[in-house]
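Course assignment 3, question 2. Fill in each field.
Student: A.L.
Task: Predict the tertiary structure for the chain below.
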Amino acid sequence: KMAAGEAAGRYRSTMSKSKDPSGLLISVIRTLSTSDDVEDRETEKGRLEEAYEKCDRDLDELIVQHYTELTTAIRTYQSITERITNSRNKIKQVKENLLSCKMLLHCKRDELRKLWIEGIEHKHVLNLLDEIENIKQVPQKLEQCMASKHYLNATDMLVSAVDSLEGPLLQVEGLSDLRLELHSKKMNMHLVLIDELHRHLYIKSTNRVGQRNKEKGRISSLVKDASPVPLMDVTNLSTPRKFLETSQFSTPGSSSMRETSLLEIKEDTELDPEENSTLFMGILIKGLAKLKKIPETVKAIQDRLEQELKQIVKRSTTQVADNGYQRGENLSQENQPR
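Answer field:
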């Protein structure tokens, strides 16, 4: 027993020095290998067996003494192990669910992008259909504007319609006839505007002077004024040049009409467009600018200038002669041959 105790003590001292269990095995192997004969080995073997038996007895005693704590520790360990296992399984399931969600989200994102693109396409198609519907009504509206002489609205409508038909709606085959019709009207629109401009520039402006002169002659005949007919006063007539002057060239006492810029001209569809002749000529010039026909307008004015001035002289001569003849008739009726 003493030998077994010494062996056990030796093994325990070896274990205390080295926490590695393989150290004890190496020590036993070294002890057995250094033995000279079989008897020493058997003796060493017996000592080991006695030491292990004593360890078993000591372990059994410790287990008996600490049975309750050991049982509780084992159960706690089992519970912890089960919880860890369950947590691992749940985490694995969560990872699988996350991967599945990620795949689904990728699919949903592609579907949403596709739907968004389709929505934009449908919106664009609807806008094109609305534009086509509006353009189909352009000929009728254009005819109404031309009849009421709202030329600026007519020009804006026509230019916008032609730009759409020759731009975004160029591939629409069903609008080919309408495209040709409106393009033809746009090509000839400036001719109407130039005729209106000449009418106000040469005819309507001189008619106002003649009308004013006629009224003066009527007043003079009522008061039996035998003085000759007064000359036409054309110094206060509004002209396009005066109308187009900006505020930087105008004097402090100038009228607000002369300070108006051509870009600020707007057409009131509720009023008679020809009520203000100067404003009407500004509208005509703005319409010609939108049609990009200003060079043609200038050329037409230059070509027709001599002819129109001759017509003014002819009309004025006829007007003066008629007024003189009427004045003579009135005087002869009053027995005043002079």
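Instructor remarks: The chain has ten helices and no strands. The first helix runs from residue 2 to 17.
Grade: pending
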